[in-house]
């Protein structure tokens, strides 16, 4: 039985690499954000708007455990998942944790064009976005670094780069 938790900052490529790896390894793929949206019939932005971040984190914790009951699965977590409650302990005990490491510059490039769906980033100017990424990484790295494995997520822009990362993760 294999259970993998893929963690890392927003824009680190958890969904992209997670999907490709799960397919190659014959694992079920669960994106925790999508799972939450499906279970609650609401977008992440709506949950943040209605329940605030703390309400979202409660839901996220509960559904992390629910998704973590699956076997032979790869779960791509939200960027904040490892940093709340005892989620990191839980994941390390329930399966293998993999941290997808990406520099602030690359995260900025990716997030600049993909911030609308992410309530924590919506409406930020370029300067605010860069400061948010740097500050966020500083706070979150102590959690991310507790993962069992670490892999660079810098090069995930093309099919061949994704395939190469899948090979490294295997
Ligand atoms: C968040 C990351 C998002 C989502 C939510 C909060 C975060 O997931 O869970 O918007 O706190 O970093 P992605 O990392 O998949 O964007």
From TrEMBL:
Record localization: Cytoplasm
Binding site for substrate: 33, 57, 79, 140
Cofactors named for this entry: Mg(2+)
EC number: 2.7.1.71
Domain of life: Bacteria
Record text on subunit structure and interactions: Monomer.
Protein name: Shikimate kinase
């Amino acid at each position: 039985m294999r259970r993998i938790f893929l963690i890392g900052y927003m824009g680190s490529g958890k969904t992209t690499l997670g999907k490709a790896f799960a397919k190659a390894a014959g694992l079920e793929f669960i994106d925790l954000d999508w799972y939450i949206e499906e279970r609650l019939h609401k977008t992440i932005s709506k949950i943040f708007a209605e329940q605030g971040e703390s309400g979202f984190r409660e839901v996220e914790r509960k559904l992390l455990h629910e998704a973590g009951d699956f076997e032979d699965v790869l779960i791509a977590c939200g960027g904040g998942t490892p940093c709340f409650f005892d989620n990191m302990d839980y994941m390390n005990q329930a399966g293998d944790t993999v941290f997808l490491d990406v520099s602030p510059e690359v995260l900025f490039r990716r997030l600049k064009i993909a911030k609308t769906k992410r309530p924590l980033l919506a409406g930020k100017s370029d300067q605010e976005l860069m400061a948010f990424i740097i500050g966020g990484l500083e706070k979150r790295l102590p959690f991310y670094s507790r993962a069992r494995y670490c892999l660079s997520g810098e090069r995930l822009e093309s099919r061949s780069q994704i395939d190469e990362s899948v090979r490294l993760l295997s």
